[in-house]
Amino acid sequence: MYVPRIVVTSGEPAGIGPDSCVVLAQANWQADIVVAADASLMAATAAALGLPLEIKLYDSSQPVAAHRAGILKILHVPAAQPVVAGSLDARNAGYVIAMLNRACDGCMNGEFAAMVTAPVQKSTLLDAGYAFSGHTEYLAARTRAALPVMMLLSDRLRVALVTTHLSLADVPRAITRDRLLATLRIVQTDLERHFALSAPRIAVLGLNPHAGEAGHLGREEIDVIHPVIRQLQAEGLDVRGPVPADTAFTPQFLATADVIVAMYHDQGLPVIKHASFGHAVNVTLGLPILRTSVDHGTALSLARSGKADVGSLRAALALAVELASASTDHAGP
What we know:
Isopropylmalate Dehydrogenase
């Protein structure tokens, strides 16, 4: 049986990322799990949580083997400063970036079959001088992907975004025909490639209330969204819309769609987080690598308390294992 080697970046060191990695290491996994982290931080985290953990330093020459409970392979990246749980330190921003770079490059060269990311603290990275608007954009730049597409999913719902980390005032200008065309094509391609959905049913939301109300509440639907949908329908894609956002998330409508494509961050994500917060998974479409992530932030106040809910990272890792194992090319080692 194919066993994928998957790298997990432990995220903001003062947050719950290290805790979640230690907790997940307590179970068996049908994958070779490698956690990018400072080894001493992970040992201290296990001690603080009262959980048994045998740390083994990772070397890429090691044979691939399924993860066994209580043992954790660490791709050691040294932290610049001692870590205090719950206390942010911009001097460790470079440590966080180094983990992401090493994991991403390992996926690009085939060392890892997938990458799973624990949450980072964007403000700390920005304070340290890194141009970091989010994992999605950073990994796209690192992999030279033309357009990354953020999609959150749970067992009941998939929501992809046309724009991500933009202020609301900038959203209308960012929704161009070219961007929407590219986004919908990526959603189509990657739902087929990663999720084995043949001819996925794609529902596209309008930008304005009531999808513009025939132009009375905005013209983006008339000038941009509807023409793009017509073009893709002519190409044979199962795309419909623009659908008013206030009715698209009803159970009756969701039963007719495989994915909802929202125009901006807070149009689509509050719905899926309300339905599945702590258990939803963030998948980046449009990358040359497979990357999943959590649906939440660093939860600094819960770090090393033993109270953190690790459900989202568990779901992100489980999905990465599932998708990497089902891949026909088995890009990992």
